[in-house]
């Protein structure tokens, strides 16, 4: 497992390959706003972006870890489809959890409800399902209408 792969920090020159990975794994959808500027901004604010690279230089996986100063948030955890089933997700998750442990911070993630393989891996790694929480988001900040908020 992983003998021809290395996990390293993201570099700005990795951006095109990273977006290709996110597009191919469904992690880069319109409206998310995860572009080069956002990545660089989060990295300047103590975020971490690990990438998994095959020995031929092909980027095959990523995990993006951001923080609010009290806990870590794991985003964009994915492996290219043709490299799945080789234990690379476990390898990348192990590195992510080593980072969380070194930072001495809780780590939280979101996973699609239909992604049974990932859910099983996360539970096995020690993550707990927070079934009493639902997650809400406003993606289009231009649509926020403060003036009419709570008038009806």
Strand residues, percent: 15-25%
Q: How are the strands of the largest sheet arranged?
A: 1-2-3-4-5
Number of distinct beta strands? 5
CATH architecture term:
3-Layer(aba) Sandwich
* Element-by-element helix/strand order: EHHEEEHEH
Number of domains: 1
Helix count from the secondary structure assignment = 4
CATH fold type: Aminopeptidase
What is the CATH class designation?
Answer: Alpha Beta
Ends distance: 58 Å
* Oligomeric status: single chain
Q: What composes the largest sheet? A: 5 strands, mixed
Basic shape: globular
User: What number is the mean pLDDT?
Assistant: 92
Question: Mind explaining what this structure looks like?
Answer:
This protein is of the alpha+beta class. The chain has one domain (5-143): Gcn5-related N-acetyltransferase (GNAT) (Aminopeptidase), CATH 3.40.630.30. Helix content is 29%, strand content 22%. The N and C termini lie far apart (58 Å).
């Amino acid at each position: 497992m992983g003998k021809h792969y290395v996990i390293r920090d993201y570099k700005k020159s990795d951006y095109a390959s990273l977006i290709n990975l996110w597009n191919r794994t469904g992690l880069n959808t319109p409206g998310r706003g995860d572009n080069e500027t956002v990545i660089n901004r989060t990295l300047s604010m103590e975020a971490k972006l690990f990438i998994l690279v095959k020995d031929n230089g092909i980027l095959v996986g990523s995990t993006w870890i951001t923080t609010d100063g009290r806990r870590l948030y794991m985003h964009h955890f994915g492996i290219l489809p043709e490299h799945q089933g080789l234990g690379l997700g476990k390898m990348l998750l192990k590195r992510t959890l080593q980072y969380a442990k070194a930072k001495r911070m809780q780590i939280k993630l979101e996973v699609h409800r239909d992604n049974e393989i990932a859910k099983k891996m996360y539970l096995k790694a020690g993550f707990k399902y927070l079934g009493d929480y639902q997650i809400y988001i406003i993606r289009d900040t231009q649509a926020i209408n403060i003036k009419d908020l709570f008038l009806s």
